[in-house]
Amino acid sequence: MSRRPTSESNNRTIKLLETVQLLNDHLTEEVCAQVFDSTRTTEREREWTLFSLTKFWTAVILLAPDSLGHALERARQGGNELLPEVTASDGGSFQRYKSLHWKFFHALYYAFTQRLLGEAQPVFAGTLSGLRERFPNLLLIDGSRLDPIAHKLKILRNLAAAILPGCMTVIYDLFNGVTRQVLFDPDAAAPELLRAVPTLDSLPKGSLLVGDRLYASIQFFWELSQRGLWGLFRLNGNLKVERQHLISRKQGGGRSVVEEWLVSVGSGQTAPVITLRMICFRQGKVQRDLLTSVLDPKMLTAKEALGLYPLRWQIERVFFDLKETLNLGRFYTANPNGVAMQLYAAAMVYNAFRVAQGRIAQRCGVAPEDISPAKLFPKLAEASRGRADCELMFLRTNRVNGGRLIKPDISELPTCRTTLRAILVKKRNGHRRRKYFVQGRTRWKSLAHVSGGQKLTKLT
Q1: 300/134 Cα distance (integer angstroms)
Q2: How much is the pLDDT for 345?
Q3: What percentage of the chain reaches a pLDDT higher than 90?
Q4: CA-to-CA distance for 256 and 302, rounded, in angstroms?
Q5: For the chain, percent helix, then strand, then coil, each to nearest 5?
Q6: How far apart are CA 425 and CA 432, in angstroms?
């Protein structure tokens, strides 16, 4: 059981290099070759193989270069452990980013994540440990549009609206702390509910999905039942709900009331009526109504459901870490395939770093949620860069000295270690910055609609 960190444990030294090795262990050339062979139809391997592209884009996430041209120049110089050794020109490289379909990176992300789950420990969301015996996975689902592309691109110069390169649907694993599925869509205007359905096919049976009211639809509950999955969503006001049977009614503290009902949902005109359980919470002006396909209250109690739903906001932190911490808010290319490559590279780095976060938390005896990704992830990236530079320097120095040097241990270098205090979450005070609505945010267009009629193929 995790405990609150003490002043002594705060000064504990944490070595970062072993966690960086997760990417090298599971994102191998063999895995990339298997994914390419199983996904390809008419595509051919070139100098930019899937492994080279993956290594390059993960390096872009870790190095955050000023431009892809700078990263390509470093790759052509060779000797950098993070970057692949290539001789391709900038033009040829950019053409490869544009021509190789993003479905290869999606398949590679999934294969990598499945391998990485063997290293992950279900140490996140410790307060929900009692649900692990009843549900193999607790998953959060939500969608988000990607950040706008810079207006300096030629095809965007005459457009006043923000240009969005696409959107993504993410399924986040509460127990393991990683994303279980990330699905890119090059059309930022694609309906969120429809693009969420393909993500369900890869989920283990018996998993419980938690989402906002958008997912509380008859069609989505039906899709879940077809795959042996459970759902817990906030009531959508557009649904026709008819109460059939009162299961229980409990009075709590502070004049709160919790009711459980078996309800019939739907009119039966366009889709069959389904039976769900509705959990209603009332306390003064506070009101929360949840719909779940888990009809047995012993499998998921009303108290557990009401405590679980607020954790849905953790997926917003996933979007923040991807866009802000891992620099996904800045895109290096302006074509859907290149954008997807950067997105999936960031998702793979995110999952590896989250597994590292869980390991560090276990060794330090703290909850993983006490460690800040915004502080830890940059340090892991810096350790990756430091290791690559040290490896390059040693190879060149050893070559000059006839190969007789003994490789030193670089794990004690300042860039390769930190302290627990330096990566702990800092508790915020009661003051919150007021958020203002910017009308300009509503003026956006999808890149898929302004790319000169370019045909964009979706993953089916």
Answers
A1: 8
A2: 96
A3: 52
A4: 13
A5: 45, 20, 35
A6: 16
